[in-house]
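During the reporting period, our protein records have gained a structure token line. One record among many is quoted in full directly below:
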Amino acid sequence: MGTYSSATRQGAFEPFDLQVARGQVDGHSQTLVSGYNGDVGTSYETIWTGSNLYVYPTSAVAIKISSSDANDTAAGTGARTVTIVGLDGSYNQISETVSLNGQTAVTTTATFLRVFHLMVNTAGSGGAAAGTIYAGVGTVTSGVPATLYGTYTVNGGSTACIYTIPAGYTGYIFDFLVATGCTTANAFTNLGLYNRPLGGVFDNTLQGRCANGGAFAIPLNYPLSFPEKTDLEVRASATTASSVSANFSVVIIKNPD
């Protein structure tokens, strides 16, 4: 097969967002951030796999990767290798791939200040992870670290609606969506996009409310802008316990030198 070139390189028109997605615009990249919380209660919780507000590392740490299932191992029938994606202690983008060892933790060589998500790269005859894969620190019990920074399941993937703008970049959020699973009459979910600048505290940038089983969606014709090292996350609370999913699309653009 031949090598295909961008239409723009041939003097034709190609949409700018498509060029960004193809990696043809220097210093620009796009990420879809998504999360799911299966049991949001009456207090605000981050939309991730835990039923609580997400707790961020205060310094860069080596991350323990382990599984709830012994078959997720380097020669097992489940997941064999996993890549952890995040930021280092200087807020630079990093990733590392490790070979799993079942319920026994494997520790990353790199240290992570932020953990964005996990990806299963290779698997045995099962073709997928056999259990839940965890990323965290502290004592590991039955494959679960004491403090969790991320999880991966075969059906849900790695779902945490959190993101931090890397060093040297400005982030732009172009859309925002939250959907709820509660069908109880007269129930509703409060929701918000929160941001925390470096050295600051979390503040509600965008807020809304969903009726039972409804969705809240905003396309942002004028995108929201956030400086480097800003933490972003979606939070929600519900009058009646509800599952909540959320996502937003962020484009990061390298700052001028």
The longest strand covers residues 28-40.
